[in-house]
């Protein structure tokens, strides 16, 4: 693959690598504090569900150093959503900056801005709040029970599906006739899976600094995945015209979806607007766990019908999603439970997907890498293994028989999009079959499956699952890129795209460098500043390489065309005969001119103008990356403990623009998925208080927890992608739960239906057999 | 009270309160490579070398570091100078994603390589167990540390 390209397909060093490797001050909380900066602290609700009867802030205001106290009495009442999505956001407007009602332990009650962090925190203790405590709703079942307390009983929220019944969002999508399809099937299997509350746990918590610049424009420096959405949402919420706001994203310490929310920017911005002073707010680790966002816990039911020969004929999927206290991403995550899983089995003519996202008095669901696919594929891919067992077929052969291939489509693409109907698409690139074959060989499928190799009390099994995601949201996402040429033949690449540590600045720089025939160092990448870079929806939905990458490729092609026009004048050769490579434009007769000569000529010499271009890209389809996942697990029959012996993930992401970065995306996603499968879980007391709001009690995988992990990228080319690329960032996180569940079954005969697969849960399941 | 810390080879005198952690003090002094990821001793992003050993600076009072030799990442790879073999190896291997865990990771690895010049893979994993990374899955970080140890061995013996 690397042979086709000079820069793309090569594992270039990150363009921000030197800064990160030397610990330079590049994160929000490292940047020098603007003069006179105030520190913000947040008073959070101790109750899961209560009305604020009264609030007395006089004591707090009297504390030396306190500059401002905010609560529901002196802040905007307008409803909004914190979800940083395209406009109009498909999430209900059900939140206020501060409300008269609190809906989960950790919900906002008041905020203080003071000269020092210590004074701000002391002032929180001096705020007197009286609550009328209400009955809390602490599970999906309680939320949908008749007569359940109504969590959103306000009359000014917008676009809640059915507030009276605690239903934030509802989806139905149908293709064919599911009843007939299941009736026609020779074998039908059913499975219901449950997934837990999980948190993104980025090492850098949310952080923001705001200040007025010298022209009294509001500047917000934020650890956000969506700078342009922050600008729009803050502008509307706080009544500031967009042209008076600048949002800058510096380096950020991981996002994984949790920074696709406008969670704390409003507090800093309003402090600056009210006091004229700069302000900083950094979430504590506890706040990051409690008052941030989570992965929606879900109950997913799948009925899978197949013909005797193993053709999957009908798939029914029913979802109940717990969106917590607010409906951010409730509709779209729910949709993706089906839309990013069901098209894989396009042999099924009859498909029905339905679901509700329900409110509870627990932490708020949000965007989390995988975005619903993680929850859906647990049910779907364990159902496929059950089906294989019923049919007496090898689970691998059953998947090979049924999975989608290049040139094919699925009715689900049109029936189900993100919160609305989807878009028809034909799969242009699909390396899934090769992924499955390579993965099977690397894990030793034929030698290990169904053999239950035993060592003492440990029994081994192998499991697999297959996966898809998307590459951006078709007909909704938009990204733009600007490229301009400098005197020395270098280029500035200006992109609104948001690098959260993924390496997208590097990847997008490589695409520009490839088109412009220069090494990566000649591309100066500037990203994520609403004043200086063009619009981009931001980093979510696995969009950046594909959507922003296509915008960069278009801009680079335009700029290269402008360079060629100058070269035509200089070299006197026909446009079509010129070649741009290695910083030179060469004519067939061997005469050439350098990019630097072209730049000097157009900036200072003849036909003077800035060689530059801006282009946008809106995807018409969302080509899925594919992944085949295999794991060997050992289960201790005495304790229920599960050890992953080896993990193999084989991925079709189209052209890997930067193979090492692409592998890193998959490795990190698999690691996060292993934590999700085996031990990560936010637990709550009977009254809704969180039990595990720190890394000590909410364990994420360490180096010691990682099995040998083999990531393989297969050769693939997506014709609609920039240089053949598709996405790679999310897909890996979906894989471990179903692969490990299937491996546990292979080892023990036990079907795990509730995640995480803790020793106790596995042990109990084994006792029940 | 005033304490004197020896940070990256230079004595620094500073005022601290009794409860100030070494983490807060170092960040206040401008050594912002030292990160505050949890303030609870769980994540390792605040790791620094104290007398050559990796310590979570959020669990150490500034007063306890009086007159002790502290190395932060700013002292390991100075601007404009060649990168430390650990830094180069991490960059080459693609072991850096968001970079937030990297300062603590490098200093912990520096402690490892100093005391175990030929670390096994399991020694590396054990040493890194207190340095959480959410981005990488540790694969390329472990590879990089193995590689850096080799480079240092070659340099020492060459």
General description of the model:
The complex is a heterodimer of chains A (769) and B (158). Chain A is α+β, with helices and mostly antiparallel strands. Chain A has three domains: 2-24 and 477-617, Aldehyde Oxidoreductase, domain 4, CATH 3.30.365; 33-134 and 203-254 and 259-290, Aldehyde Oxidoreductase, domain 3 (Alpha-Beta Complex); 298-473 and 621-768, Aldehyde Oxidoreductase, domain 4. In chain A, strand 9 and strand 10 form a beta hairpin. In chain A, helix 16 crosses helix 17 (595-604) and helix 18 (659-678) packs across helix 19 (736-748). The radius of gyration of chain A is 27 Å and the shape is globular. Chain B is of the alpha+beta class. Chain B is built from five helices and five strands; from the N terminus they run E-E-H-E-E-E-H-H-H-H. In chain B, a hairpin with a 2-residue loop joins strand 1 (2-7) and strand 2 (10-15). Classes of the chains: A alpha+beta (769), B alpha+beta (158). Chains A and B meet through helix 1 and helix 18 of A and helix 2, helix 3, helix 4 and helix 5 of B.
CATH T-level fold name of the largest domain in chain B: Ubiquitin-like (UB roll)
Strand content of chain A: 15-25%
CATH first level of the largest domain in chain A: which class?
Answer: Alpha Beta
Identify low-pLDDT runs of chain A. Answer: none
> How would you state the average pLDDT of chain A, rounded?
97
Which strand order does the major sheet of chain B show?
2-1-5-3-4
* Number of strand segments of chain A: 27
CATH architecture of the largest domain in chain A: 2-Layer Sandwich
Percentage of residues in helical conformation of chain A: 25-40%
- Which chains make the largest contact? A-B, 56 and 51 residues
Strand order of the largest sheet of chain A: 3-5-1-12-9-10-11
CATH topology of the largest domain in chain A: Aldehyde Oxidoreductase, domain 4
């Amino acid at each position: 693959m690397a042979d086709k390209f000079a820069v793309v397909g090569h594992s270039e060093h990150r363009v921000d690598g030197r800064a990160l490797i030397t610990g330079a001050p590049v994160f929000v909380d490292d940047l020098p504090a603007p003069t006179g900066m105030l520190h913000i602290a947040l008073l959070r609700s101790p109750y899961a569900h209560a009305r604020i009867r009264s609030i007395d802030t006089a004591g707090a205001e009297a504390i030396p150093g306190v500059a401002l106290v905010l609560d529901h009495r002196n802040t905007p009442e307008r409803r909004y959503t914190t979800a940083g999505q395209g406009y109009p956001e498909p999430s209900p407007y059900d939140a206020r900056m501060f409300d008269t009602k609190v809906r989960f332990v950790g919900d906002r009650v008041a905020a203080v801005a003071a000269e020092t962090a210590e004074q701000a925190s002391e002032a929180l203790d001096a705020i007197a709040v009286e609550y009328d405590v209400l009955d809390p709703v602490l599970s999906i079942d309680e939320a949908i029970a008749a007569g359940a307390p109504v969590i959103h009983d306000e009359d000014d929220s917008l676009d809640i599906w059915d507030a009276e019944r605690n239903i934030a969002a509802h989806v139905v999508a149908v293709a064919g006739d599911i009843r007939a399809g299941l009736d026609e099937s020779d074998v039908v299997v059913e499975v219901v899976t449950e997934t837990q509350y999980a948190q993104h746990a980025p090492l850098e918590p949310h952080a923001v600094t705001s200040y007025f610049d010298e022209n009294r424009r509001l500047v917000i420096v934020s650890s956000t995945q969506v700078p342009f959405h922050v600008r729009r949402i803050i502008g509307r919420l706080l009544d500031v015209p967009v042209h008076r706001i600048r949002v800058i994203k510096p380096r950020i310490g991981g996002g994984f979806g949790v920074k696709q929310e406008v969670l704390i920017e409003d507090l800093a911005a309003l402090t600056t607007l009210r006091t004229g002073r700069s302000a900083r707010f950094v979430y504590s680790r506890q706040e990051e766990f409690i008052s941030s966002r989570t992965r929606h816990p879900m109950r997913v039911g799948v009925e899978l019908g197949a013909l005797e020969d193993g053709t999957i004929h009908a798939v029914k999927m029913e979802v109940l999603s717990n969106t917590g206290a607010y409906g951010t991403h409730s509709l779209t995550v729910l949709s993706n439970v089906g839309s990013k899983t069901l098209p894989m089995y396009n042999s099924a003519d009859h498909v029905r997907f339905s679901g509700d996202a329900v409110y509870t008095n627990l932490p708020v669901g949000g965007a989390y890498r995988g975005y619903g696919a993680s929850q859906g594929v647990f049910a779907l891919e364990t159902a496929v293994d059950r089906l294989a067992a019923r049919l007496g077929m090898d689970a691998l052969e059953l998947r090979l028989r049924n999975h989608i291939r290049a040139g094919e489509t699925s009715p689900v693409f049109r029936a189900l999009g993100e919160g609305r109907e989807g878009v028809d698409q034909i799969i242009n690139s699909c390396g899934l079959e090769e992924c499955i074959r390579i993965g099977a060989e690397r894990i030793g499928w034929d030698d290990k499956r169904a053999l239950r190799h035993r060592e003492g009390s440990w029994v081994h099994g192998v499991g697999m699952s297959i996966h898809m995601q998307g590459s951006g949201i078709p007909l909704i996402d938009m990204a733009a890129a600007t490229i301009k040429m400098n005197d020395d033949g270098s280029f500035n690449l200006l992109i609104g795209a948001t690098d959260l540590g993924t390496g997208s600045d590097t990847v997008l720089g490589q695409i520009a460098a490839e088109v412009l025939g220069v090494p990566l160092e000649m591309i100066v990448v500037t990203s994520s500043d609403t004043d200086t870079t063009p619009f981009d929806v931001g980093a979510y939905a696995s969009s950046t390489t594909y959507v922003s990458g296509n915008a960069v490729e278009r801009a680079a092609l335009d700029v290269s065309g402008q360079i060629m026009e100058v070269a035509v004048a200089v070299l006197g050769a026909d446009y079509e005969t010129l070649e741009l490579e290695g910083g030179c434009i060469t004519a067939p007769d061997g005469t050439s001119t350098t990019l630097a000569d072209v730049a000097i000529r157009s900036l200072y010499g003849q036909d003077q103008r800035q060689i530059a271009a801006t282009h946008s890209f809106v995807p018409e389809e969302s080509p899925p990356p594919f992944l085949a996942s295999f794991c060997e697990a050992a289960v201790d029959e005495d304790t229920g403990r599960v050890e992953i012996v080896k993990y193999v993930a084989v991925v079709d992401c189209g052209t890997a623009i930067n193979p090492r970065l692409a592998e890193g995306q998959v490795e990190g996603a698999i690691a996060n998925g292993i934590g999700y499968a085996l031990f990560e879980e936010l637990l709550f007391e009977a009254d809704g208080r969180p039990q595990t709001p720190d890394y000590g009690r909410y364990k994420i995988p360490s180096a010691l927890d990682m099995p040998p992990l083999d990531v393989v990228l297969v050769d693939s080319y997506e014709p609609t992608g920039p240089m053949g690329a598709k996405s790679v960032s999310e897909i890996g996180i979906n894989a471990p739960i179903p692969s490990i569940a299937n491996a546990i079954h292979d080892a023990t005969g036990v079907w795990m239906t509730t995640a995480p697969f803790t020793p106790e849960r596995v042990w109990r399941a084994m006792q029940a057999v | 009270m005033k304490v004197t810390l020896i940070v990256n080879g230079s004595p620094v005198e500073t005022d601290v309160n009794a409860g100030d952690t070494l983490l807060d003090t170092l960040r206040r002094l401008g050594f912002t490579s030292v990160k505050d990821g949890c303030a609870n001793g769980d994540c390792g992003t605040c790791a620094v070398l104290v007398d050559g050993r990796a310590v979570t600076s959020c669990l150490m009072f500034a007063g306890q570091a009086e007159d002790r030799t502290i190395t932060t990442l700013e002292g390991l790879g100075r601007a404009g100078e060649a990168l430390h073999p650990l830094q180069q190896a991490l960059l080459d291997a693609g072991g850096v994603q968001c970079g937030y865990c990297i300062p603590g990771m490098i200093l912990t690895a520096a402690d490892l390589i100093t005391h175990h010049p030929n670390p096994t893979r399991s020694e590396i994993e054990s040493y890194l167990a207190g340095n959480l990374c959410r981005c990488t899955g540790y694969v390329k970080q472990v590879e990089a540390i193995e590689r850096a140890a080799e480079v240092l061995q070659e340099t020492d013996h060459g």
